[in-house]
User: Fold Spore maturation protein from Blautia intestinalis.
Amino acid sequence: MKLISYISVFMIPVLILYILGYGLIAKRNIYNDFLEGAEEGLKIVWRLVPTLIGLMTAVGVLRASGFLEFLGGILSKASGVLDIAPELFPLGLVRLFSSGAATGLLLDIFKQFGTDSPTGLMAALMLSATESVFYCMSVYFGSVGVQKTRYTLPGALLASLAGMMAAVCIVQFLL
Assistant:
C-alpha cells in the first residue's frame, strides 16, 4: 500500500515532465501549444456555460419545489413489493441530472440510515453504478455540436436502470 501511495505522489509530476520531454524531442514550441490548448478549452467552456446553468437551475427548482419527492413518492409504491427504501427513488431520479445533487441526497440517506445499513449500501452502489445521463449528454454532445443523439438517451437510461437494479439486488443478496 505504501508503494502505491508513493507512486501516486509522483504520478502527475512525472506525467508533466514526460509531456515536456516529448515536446522538446519533437522540437515543438511547448508554451505556444499550451496557450493554444488553453484557448480552445476556454472556448469550449464558454459554449457549455449556458447548458450547465440551465441544468443546475432545473435541478435546483425540481428539488426545492418538492417535485422530485412527489415523483419519488409515486414510484415508491413499488418499494414495499421490492423491499427498497422509498428514499432511493428520488436519489435515482436526481442522479440522472446531477451528480452533486445526488451526493447531497446520499449524505442525507447516510445521516438517516447509516452508511452500513442496507439502504446506505444500496444508495452508495446506485451512485457508483450509474451516470448523470442528462448532464453528460448535454455537456459532451453540446461541446461538439451533436444534434441527433439517436439511441443514446434510451441506452443510457436503460444502463442506469440496470445499474440501480443491480445495486439493489447485490445488497439484498449479500444481506
Remarks:
- The chain has a mean pLDDT of 85.
- The chain has nine helices and no strands.
